[in-house]
Amino acid sequence: MKKYVIDTNCLISFVTDRNTDQQQRMAAVLEAASQLRCTLICPQHVLTEFVFVMDRVYQISKPVIGATIRDFVSMPGIEIRHEIDFSTILTLWPTAVPDFGDAIVAAVCKSIKGSAVITFDTKFKASLRKAGIAVLEGDFSMSAGRE
């Protein structure tokens, strides 16, 4: 089964209307995960960033953010990754991946054979490619459903 490590912007795009194309692409990936056609791996740091952005930028109430996270983490096909390898992060950050949070996502992906990162951040995608880390491109629904 294909495994994908998701970036914070993927969750934000899914729960907001900031970009309907991204929202639809993430809906397809989440649907594939819910049907166990792929596994979405979410580093704990991504949830921390998500809470911060939803609270501070979008001013969503904490109970609503909490309910959103509760629904997400209990969904089939979702795996929350708490442990990270700092030695791997420090081989990526700050040279290959300048953002520390992005380096966490990249390090988690690097630790999972055959996985790819899902992100809408073009600078992060370029950093991932330069570091030799796979990025899911194109139609997420088609890729997420393949083995």
Write a concise keyword list for the protein shown above.
single chain, 147 residues, alpha/beta, Rossmann fold, 4 strands
What portion of residues belong to β-strands?
Answer: 5-15%
| Unreliable stretches | none
What spatial form do the alpha-carbon principal axes imply?
Answer: globular
Structural class of the secondary elements? alpha/beta
Strand line-up of the largest beta sheet: 3-2-1-4
Description:
The chain has 147 residues and is of the alpha/beta class. It has a single domain (2-144), classed as 5'-nuclease (Rossmann fold). Helices cover 55% and strands 12% of the residues. The chain contains 8 helices and 4 strands, in the order E-H-H-E-H-H-E-H-H-E-H-H. It has helices spanning 8-15, 20-34, 44-57, 62-73, 86-92, 100-110, 122-130, 140-144, and strands at 2-6, 38-43, 78-81, 116-118. It has a 4-stranded parallel β-sheet, with helices on both faces. Helix 1 crosses helix 2 (20-34) and helix 3 packs antiparallel against helix 4. The termini are close together.
Summary?
By secondary structure, the chain is of the alpha/beta class. It has helices at 8-15, 20-34, 44-57, 62-73, 86-92, 100-110, 122-130, 140-144; strands spanning 2-6, 38-43, 78-81, 116-118. Strands 3-2-1-4 form a four-stranded parallel beta sheet, with helices on both faces.
Topology at a glance:
Elements: E1 2-6, H1 8-15, H2 20-34, E2 38-43, H3 44-57, H4 62-73, E3 78-81, H5 86-92, H6 100-110, E4 116-118, H7 122-130, H8 140-144
